[in-house]
Structure formats: structure tokens, C-alpha cells
Amino acid sequence: TSLLSGKNIVVMGVANNRSIAWGITQSLHNAGANLIFTYRQERSKQKLNKLLDKHGIEPRMVVPCDAEDDQSIEQAFQKIGEEAGIIHGLVHSIAFANAEELQGEYADTSRDGYLLAQNISAYSLVAVTREARKYMTEGGSIVTQTYIGAERVVPNYNVMGAAKAALEASVRYLAEDVGKDDIRVNAVSAGPLRTLSAKGIAGFNDKVSAVEEKAPLRRQVDQDQVGDVNLFLLSELARGVTGEVLHVDAGFHTVA
Ligand code: 0WD
To answer: Top-level EC class, please (predicted)?
Structure first.
């Protein structure tokens, strides 16, 4: 397909080949998008460049951006705006919490740990939307990644559950703000995927087996499936969809 041909899409959060953002990258590339990447760690940049090379994907730009730092976000988008001209779409695939707060009781969460998780995992979408919007002059679509731990108590997800709840509320409030500029904001709620970040969550394997047992489709989802739903939300096919949280979890969220 060429659903996104000629469209400039910014992808934030590829750390390695297991990253959700990497699955999204492949879907967007197959749909003809011009891809712009942001990375935080130098190590991630090297991995990203290797991956792009291996898959024959020519990036439009690769730009550093620390989602914890307003100035870094501003500079990154200024650079992207100046060089690419127009941004049509943005993928936010970033989250962080201290590993010691992804186990035990949520009641033990420290103030600093709480603020850190909110800062990187939820506030960053607000800051990024504000900066990207300046260059989304033809309307556009922003998609972030969330998890069912925002809606229900998932053991050990703890502080990240509170951050994802804030992220999902932010999707709705941001959608209201930027809707005036014909920009849509949505979230994809993926089932559990074995990624670098997921390794930090205690008992993660149990979450995967629970999906395989209980989800209507009786299997887990993979990065490709999550990538394709991100593609849909970024494309004109979803032009009537905003402020939405779309589950890509083999139906797991529907069963008791
Ligand atoms: O089961 C899962 N893995 C699920 C993940 C299920 C449902 C949702 N998600 C969400 C995550 O919460 C996150 O929002 O998907 C998003 C991506 O997660 P992932 O693909 O599991 O994570 P990973 O491959 O570890 O990438 C996370 C990346 C970091 O990599 P580096 O090594 O460069 O820090 O998050 C980014 C970063 O790219 N990140 C940051 N980026 C910029 N500034 C920052 C930061 N301060 N902190 C983390």
C-alpha cells in the first residue's frame, strides 16, 4: 500500500529490534512514509542505524531528543521543522520508571519515582504535541503507546499504571486542543510484548501467558500487529478518529 506516501512521520522511541517503535517503523516504511527518528541514547542511535541499514530503510533524518528535557524537545522539532518543512504524523513510543518501583506495592512508590514516571511517560506527550503542532500545518496525526495497566490493576505495573492513566487522559485533552488544527491524537493499547522496557517489570512472562490463555484470539500480539494499527491511525483511513484508545491485545481487555 502507499497509505503514507510523501508523508513525513516522526518516530520516537526505537531502542532496538524488539521495540514497539521498530514494529511501527516497518509498517510505516511499507506504507511509503518518509521517516524521521529521534533517539535518546547514543547506543540506541547506533542500533537504529544498523537496523535501518539492514532493512534498506533510508531515514529522512535522525535527531537526538531527550523527552525529559523541554529544551531538547524544542530543538529537535525545530531542526525537524526546518529541514522537513511539514510534519504529517508523530509516533510517541517512550516510557520510563525505576525498576524498583515496578514490583511490590504501589503504596510504596516514592515521590521522585512517581514524578519521574509521569514526566517521561506522560508529560512528554504534552510537550512533544506542543512542539510538533507548530509544523503540522496541513493537519496531522499523533499516536502514543499505552497499556491496560492504565485501566485496571495489573500486578507490578504500579507507578506506570498511574502514568499511563495520565497519558490516556492527556490524549483526550490534547485531541480537543489540536482538533482545531485538524490534528488527531490517539493511543494504541498493546498487549504485553517482550521488549527491553518489559524486562524491567516483575512477572512479565505471566502477563504474556494470561493473554494466550484468556484473550478471545488465544494468542499474544506482536510488534507487526501493533505497527499496523499505528499505521491505520496515522493514515487517512482514521480521519474520523481522535481522542481514542484502541486496544491491540487479541481482545484481552474484553474478558473477565
Ligand atoms: O509490553 C510492552 N512492551 C508494552 C509497551 C505494552 C504496551 C505499551 N508499551 C509502551 C511502553 O510503555 C512505551 O510507552 O510502548 C512504548 C515503547 O515501549 P517498548 O517498545 O516496550 O520499549 P523499549 O524498546 O525499551 O524503548 C523504550 C525507549 C527507550 O530507549 P533508549 O534506550 O533510547 O532509552 O523509550 C525511550 C527510549 O527510546 N525513552 C526515552 N526517549 C527519550 N527521552 C526516554 C527519554 N527521557 N526515556 C525512555
So the answer is: oxidoreductase
Residues 6+ apart with CB under 8 A from 43: none
Per the CATH hierarchy, to which homologous superfamily does domain 8-251 belong? Answer: NAD(P)-binding Rossmann-like Domain (3.40.50.720)
157 is catalytic: yes
The answer to whether residue 141 scores a pLDDT higher than 80 is yes
Ligand 1 pocket check: which of 90, 148, 195, 212 to mutate, most ligand atoms within 8 Å of Cβ?
Answer: 195
Rounded CA separation 145/133 (Å):
19
What pLDDT does residue 1 have?
58
Sign of the dihedral defined by the CA atoms of residues 155, 159, 162, 168, in that order = negative
Q: Return d(Cα 251, Cα 96) in angstroms, integer.
A: 26
Give the whole-angstrom CA distance, residue 18 versus residue 15. Answer: 8
Spacing, Cα 249 to ligand 1 middle (Å): 18
Residues with CB under 6 A from ligand 1: 13, 15, 18-21, 39-41, 44, 66-68, 93-96, 120, 145-147, 190, 192-193, 195-198
Helices (H), 183-222: 204-214
The model's pLDDT over 61-101, given as tens digits with 9 standing for 90+, comes to 999 999 999 999 999 999 999 999 999 999 999 999 999 99
Q: Which of 16, 94, 142, 160 to mutate to test the pocket of ligand 1 (most atoms within 8 A of CB)?
A: 94
Global ipTM: 0.95
